[in-house]
Design brief:
Pfam families: Acetyltransf_1, MarR. It comes from Streptomyces avermitilis. InterPro entries: Acyl_CoA_acyltransferase (IPR016181), GNAT_dom (IPR000182), HTH_MarR-typ (IPR000835), NAT_camello-type (IPR050769), WH-like_DNA-bd_sf (IPR036388), WH_DNA-bd_sf (IPR036390). GO terms for molecular function: DNA-binding transcription factor activity; N-acetyltransferase activity. This is GNAT family N-acetyltransferase. The chain is of the alpha+beta class and about 300 residues long. The chain has 2 domains: about 120 residues, Winged helix-like DNA-binding domain superfamily/Winged helix DNA-binding domain (Arc Repressor Mutant, subunit A, Orthogonal Bundle); about 170 residues, Gcn5-related N-acetyltransferase (GNAT) (Aminopeptidase, 3-Layer(aba) Sandwich). The chain has 11 helices and 9 strands. Strands 3-4-5-6-7-9-8 form a 7-stranded mixed β-sheet, with helices on both faces. A two-stranded antiparallel ribbon has the order 1-2. Strand 5 and strand 6 form a beta hairpin. Helix 2 packs across helix 5 and helix 7 runs antiparallel to helix 8.
Length: about 300
């Protein structure tokens, strides 16, 4: 391996990325950097201007001009941060989320067109090659909080949610395949019929690999969203992934116009319970039950979005 090899690969990959935006339609009417800011606002709960500047390594003045443009176009709203009144909290408006969704759909279509030129039998090889590059270039450095990416599910991720929920809860709590069946039904219902404006899945990624997940779906109760299937891989805990995933659900539910977020969990899941409490969820009721081959205590929790926002 030489410097020439790396520079040659960089030139090749830059040409590939350029091909994705052939005709300059992928990001229009936004620049690449503006599109990155929109993506970050749509997928990360860390939406203070200072956090965006750090996450994207942008000049403060440049980012400020982008945000001013977005506000003039009705894509974002800014308000004092709950963490620090000196900061400005930024959220996407409905128009802003539509713009982010359109860019995401264009990106999926472009990448899909690129992948269509690769034989299906070679897809695993390509995926492993990309993961190998990420792993080798980050070798010797433990993952950091800033390495965590929240993204939409890619093909295969919904199956990963089912498999990892089943495996992790079997290993840590001894739950049987009844739980895997429950998760499979939840995921299948989402995959077959969901409104992307009101329901969403997030995958937390670390070093190119899925490390956590959560879902936000409509509840049967009017005006209520339901948080489901929060999971963080054991070797990725301690990076704040669970907190970021719950934050993403809360911010999305508020932006989608829900009045409350509901969830059901079990009292043995103490780490998750502490996250819910930090975000303002209140325990409504608990009841003993026998499920998944274990004696458990189920709990219903609720977050009032209007009260939490005040």
């Amino acid at each position: 391996m030489t410097v020439h090899d790396i520079r040659s690969f960089n030139r090749f990959y830059t040409n590939v990325i350029g091909a994705l935006d052939y005709g300059r339609h992928l990001y229009a009417p936004y620049t690449l950097t503006e599109s990155r800011v929109l993506y970050e606002l749509a997928h990360s709960p860390r939406t203070d201007a200072a956090d965006l500047r750090t996450e994207l390594s942008l000049d403060a003045g440049y980012l400020s001009r982008i945000l001013n443009k977005f506000e003039d176009d009705g894509l974002i709203r800014r308000s004092p941060s709950e963490r620090d009144p000196r900061r400005r909290h930024i959220t996407l408006t409905a128009r802003g989320r539509d713009a982010a969704d359109l860019l995401a759909e264009r990106a999926r279509a472009s990448v899909g067109a690129l992948l269509s030129t690769v034989p299906a039998a070679d897809h695993p090889r390509l995926t492993e090659a990309m993961r190998t590059i990420q792993e080798l270039l980050s070798a010797g450095r433990p993952p950091r909080r800033e390495d965590v990416l929240l993204r939409e599910p890619a093909p295969g991720d919904l199956g990963w949610i089912v498999q990892r929920n089943a495996a992790v809860y079997a290993a840590e709590y001894g739950w049987n395949t009844d739980y895997e069946g429950l998760v499979a039904r939840i995921v299948a219902d989402f995959a077959q019929d969901h409104d992307p404006h009101l329901e969403r899945v997030w995958i937390a990624e670390v070093d190119g690999r899925p490390a956590g997940c959560v879902m936000c779906v409509r509840d049967e109760a009017p005006g209520a969203a339901r948080l489901r299937l929060l999971l963080v891989e054991p070797d990725a805990r301690g990076l704040g992934i669970g907190d970021r995933l719950v934050s993403a659900v809360v911010e999305f539910a508020r932006g989608a116009g829900y009045r409350e977020v509901l969830l059901w969990t079990n009292d043995v899941l103490s780490a998750a319970r502490h996250i819910y409490q930090r975000h303002g969820f209140v325990l409504l009721a608990e009841k003993p039950h026998r499920s998944f081959g274990a004696d458990l205590v189920g709990q219903d929790w609720r977050l009032d979005l209007h009260e939490a926002h005040e």
